[in-house]
Amino acid sequence: MAILRFARPLDRYVFAEFWKIFVTTALGFPVLVVVIDLTDNLQKYLNRGLPRSDVALSYLYWLPDSMFMILPAAVLFATVFSIGAFTRHAEITAAKASGISFYRLIAPIYVGAVMAAGGGLLLGEVVPITNAKRLSLLQENKYKQRTERFNFAYAADQGRVYKVGTLNVERGTLEGLEVERKGKGSDYPTLVISARDASWQKGRGWAIGKGVLHVVPDSGPDLALSFESLRDRNMHEQPADLMATPRSPQEMGWRELSRFIRALERSGGDANELKVERSLKIAIPVTCLIIALFGAPLATSTQRGGAAYGIGVSLGTTVIFLMLIQLTKAIGGKGLIQPDLAAWIPNVVFGVVGTYLLTRVRT
Q1: How far apart are CA 350 and CA 359, in angstroms?
Q2: CB under 8 Å to 126, separation ≥6 — which residues?
Q3: H-helix segments, the chain
Q4: Nearest-angstrom CA–CA distance, 55 and 60
Q5: How far apart are alpha carbons 46 and 138 in whole angstroms?
Q6: In this structure, are residues 234 and 206 in contact, taking their beta carbons and an 8 Å threshold?
Q7: Which positions ≥6 away from 362 have C-beta within 8 Å?
Q8: What pTM was estimated for this model as a whole?
Q9: Which of 260, 248, 322, 243 is nearest to 287 (CA)?
Q10: Other C-beta atoms within 10 Å of 23: how many?
């Protein structure tokens, strides 16, 4: 906002018109989504015995998540309606007659789009925190969270592989454990630890129960050592890390999601869909800039049908954009194209179309 103090009165006027519509849309749509969701799920939450105050507070925590996805649409609505109003009231014509080009006139709108993009990046990091509080208030983890995993392999750091019969996260126990570390020559032999069980001790790591340690050199006989208990200092993964089951990306920030993707890949899971979601945490805020580029020339035609035409154009474009995101998420999630690239396809499409339309506007 400090930039606008040094802007011309016309810049402040254009920005104010854009910002009023943007704020109204960015808050209005999430509130509408909250009302619809509350209508559908209120009885379910009451059946869980949740206090009404907790339910209400959970929806307050849900607003950042709802706003994150709607920011590009809010920028589009604000761009289309503000420029559409300037066009209908001949303010753009008056500005051109005064020697102000169309590009210069809408510059404050792009400043607003940059601010919206910055807000989107901030929301992307806030959303996991608020979603965690919401899930806690609604006791969702109690009803959905898995605490056991059976017969799996987990690829850890340093070329180590864990083979586990049963994992119980709640108790912090492993049954039927085998740890294999591949060797690299005679000075670094292969090690295989076979144990009946292991237990997680907070602050100390895994305590492995009775088992056998096999030393497998490149040549010569194997060496087997029995033990009553063993502590592997390199086995630092916590029980929840070994689950490596897909969590909601909305529950994780960029760094945490990146760590989870690496853990999921080590355990042999498919992380393509999560990679698309990770890239969308940046791509969607950047869409605010692209959508302003697209919406500005589109808005100059809204005088044909007034407000109804503007609403139709904005809603139609928003639906197409959201459908394109879902399509590219599916394509990237299946690995048909590189997942990180898939997240940026909607921006590329709208950016190319927006640039073309902008070049055709009379300045």
Answers
A1: 14
A2: 64
A3: 9-47, 52-88, 91-97, 102-105, 107-138, 140-144, 239-243, 254-266, 272-299, 306-333, 339-359
A4: 9
A5: 10
A6: no
A7: 102
A8: 0.67
A9: 322
A10: 12
Residues 74/116, Cβ–Cβ less than 8 Å: yes
Question: 291-325 burial by CB neighbour count: b if 16+ within 10 A, else e?
Answer: bbbbbbbbbbebbeeeeeebeebbeebbeebeeeb
> Structure tokens of 86?
């300037």
| Cβ–Cβ under 8 Å, residues 113 and 31 | no
Alpha-carbon distance 24 to 13, whole Å? 17
pLDDT of residue 251 exceeding 70, the answer is: yes
Instruction: Write out the two tokens for 46.
Output: 């009451």
Rounded Cα–Cα distance for residues 162 and 263 (Å):
13
Burial class (CB in 10 A: 0-12, 13-18, 19+), 163: middle
Structure tokens, 118: 């910055």
Would you place residue 137 in the very low, low, confident or very high pLDDT band (cuts 50, 70, 90)?
confident
CA angle 137, 142, 146 (to 5 degrees): 135
Placement of tokens 């994150």 in the chain: 68
Do 141 and 135 contact (CB within 8 A), yes or no? yes
Q: Taking the CB of residue 147, how many other CB atoms lie within 10 A of it?
A: 12
277 pLDDT band, cuts 50/70/90, is confident
**The tokens 């899971």 sit on which residue?**
269
